[in-house]
Fold these 2 entries.
Entry 1:
Amino acid sequence: MTTDSPSAGPSTTLGRKALKAHIQYDFVQANQEYSENGTADAQQLTSGPRSRTAIITCVDSRSSPEHFYQLKENDAIVIRNGGGRTNDPGAIRSLAIIQATSELKEIKVVHHANCGSLFYTDKWTKDMVTENDVRAPAGPYRDGCGCWVQAISFLPFCRKDDEASDDEIVKNSVKGDVEYLRNHPLIKPSVLVTGWFYNLATGIVEPVEC
Ligand SMILES: [Zn+2]
């Protein structure tokens, strides 16, 4: 299990942002066109994904399994959270219920290059929210945010070695997260758990030896 640790060296790039131009995306129009071109299999009982595979990956909008694996509806289960962490209780809840309601043969853990989880720590995030700067973009959080944030583990990637490259840190996080699932009581031993690194520059999803 990979967690933030007090010995992890502080990053000089905490909270790094590279904001790009805001676009107005017409979600309603996009959905209208989609619905006119056929919808997903809408049978009443779920039979699980055709590939019998679940993919857990990051919420980053550049890291989309539907695109890099060319998935269609019902091809695979996709679970996403910040970093694509397996030690997130929400991920375990989803994986447990998928195994209870359908057959699962493989779980792919896919982390990606240049992930935002490289650029925060648990303490930095909690301090930032607790400070609740009214000048922050989009304004402050609501009252009570300090209590709520203390109860959350933000699961950043751990910088254990100043010499390691960012890509090595991400690949090490894949290994830790695969190991976590392989030993978790709610993941059946019959389910294969594999690790992958999505290289944004090449579009290749590279295997990680785990
Ligand atoms: Zn990410």
Entry 2:
Amino acid sequence: MFMPKKLIHLSILTCLLALLTLSTGCGSSSSSSSSISYTSRSISMSLSSASTSSLSTSSLQTQALSDYSWVLQNKGSLRVYFGDFASDGSTSGTIETASNSGYNNFSGAILDADLNVVAPIVFSTSGGIQTTGADLNGDISNLTLTLNTSTHTATATGSIDTDLSSDSTSYTRVDSSSIPVSYGNAGKGSAARTSSPGSSSLLDSDHDGLINIFDTDNDGNGKVDNADATAGAENTGFSSTIASAILFDNLKIDYTNSANYTVTNDTVLTVEFTPYDASKISSIIIYRRNSHYNDCTTTINATGFTALETYPAIGTTWTSTGYKLYKMTNLSGSTVWTVFLTPNNNSFTAGDKMLAKVTLTSGGVEYYWLNLNFKYQTIVADTTTWNHGGAGSQSNPYLILDTGGRVFSWTAPKDETGADLTGVVYSLELFYYNSAGTQVGSRQTVAVGTDIYTSSIPEATIDLFNSSSAKYIQCDLTASYPYGDNSANKIYFKRSSW
Ligand SMILES: [Ca+2]
Ligand SMILES: [Ca+2]
Ligand SMILES: [Ca+2]
Ligand SMILES: [Ca+2]
């Protein structure tokens, strides 16, 4: 399922960070030309298992050493380097340092063939503290990473004392079995939470053992990263090419189907890349992915998106497209590369990753990691009292009184663990229709707020398009994060006299 082994795939960037400043600053900013001078460092490492027997009796039993890959991220540049291990556990590659503060500091992880993090790389252990950062001061020729599949740590030994010095500001919290607290919960489980996160400048901000690009909740406060406005830029911070890259999940259901929808068939997974300059992008594909995404088929592109290249028919297997993303303009007129997917399974889950390959028109190639932070296991559930008739469907809307506003109430959508999603922004989106079922007037939005479960639509809003012969209203109970990843429950209602 993996691409050819022994190849080393590095996130080779064609531009220096100085250009990032220019491209985001939109102008010629004096820019003091703080171009950063990188030094290439060759690294050669070998992976070994602490215990062959534990490998063969654990859930990792199907893993050969060649199924694992390594990831190292530079704390200063945020550049990400990765490679595969050969069947004998060896690997080599080149990573980069610079003299700027933090630019010789790395944290990393070992991933399995499904791109799941099996262990952070631990550079030293002292007094129960597992240090997960290190300063690189030269080439590394003989680093051994010993993977302990009981404690889910990969401990580095070898030239650690000469060319690599551990950095105690980066460490992972561990549980009573010495397992990093993020293991098995994608970094957002109760064990991974913290009320005292570390510095946001750390690659593993909340010391749970997962670097931010793989952590679903960077600050450990229990709210997924999607609730943070910068989430789309989290994996692109090093890039002068891509402003935002995000993988998210939508589940929008008609109220009348709210008892019989399935996550498997009704979820829409969305991948969206927003470049700084679309003319620099040749193509974007998902180069590797968790096998839960292998069942995906393409589904219709979202409302308001216009394809700029041929978009596949609904139901096309994504694999047959080469896991391609498509150039489109989005609602706000930006050019993006995106794809809308039906998962065709309910096994996909938080932490499932994709690795995207961006090919530039210059011929250069860049890689970006994407992490699914949560999935909607349920939609927003309506708990409004409807006692004047109707069924909530388009053909038989709920009836309401002929005067007055209307109070709605609901409960939160649940995530893949069955927990209520929090940090969610709710709104009521209203669409008005005439008796022929044609939309009249303009969409109205009643803003509700974050984690608030009731709201009312004012009388005047309900009656806003009476003069346009509005005969019923579609009300979407919408729960969303900043990126359009939302759950909606579409309910139809009308005044009794309409
Ligand atoms: Ca976390
Ligand atoms: Ca973390
Ligand atoms: Ca994250
Ligand atoms: Ca959070």
